[in-house]
Write a structure and sequence with these properties.
It is built from 5 helices and 6 strands. By secondary structure, it is α/β, with parallel strands linked by helices.
Length: 192
Amino acid sequence: MAQPRYLALLLSSAFCLAATFSTGCTTVGQTADIDPATGRIKSKSVYGGVKATVIKSEKTNLATYQPLILTLGSKFFKEQTVKFGYFGTVVNREDMEKLLIKEGKSGLVSDVTNFLSWKKIADNYKPFLVLQPDIREEGRVNYGQLKAIRADTAEEVFVAEVKLDFLWKGVNDDTVFYPLYNAFIDWVSKNK
């Protein structure tokens, strides 16, 4: 698992590269409405419909995890999950800390970004999913990933990825973020 600081630096670098090589008509980290007809984010990619490759898709009873999801990474993941509308409460790291303080559970953990903390919170507060972006390196090729992790078991129950093309297609919403998020939407739809 990539360290949060390393991932933030990598995603920031990807943003700068995408801005440098793009023609100005692409977006990065901008949320989009869910198309009511398809239940997915509509892509406007000039490269055709980019699809994420689903690496792992475990059957999961999402009713258990529907009340709460922790989103890591940029604000895109939190805001897009709110727009998706399936999960009752969508929090990022800071929101989770505030929620635990409000609920009188601040003594459980000192950090909400690691497996042991997630387990303690799930056992002593309520079960939840963690939605986490990541980078997988294979030689000189990088893949952007989106993972759903059960906080109570630290098990990755969903993993999708797209190849990061910094030179030709760029790293943007239509080529990375929307395809990854659409794969997550599809997985949720199959498991709710």
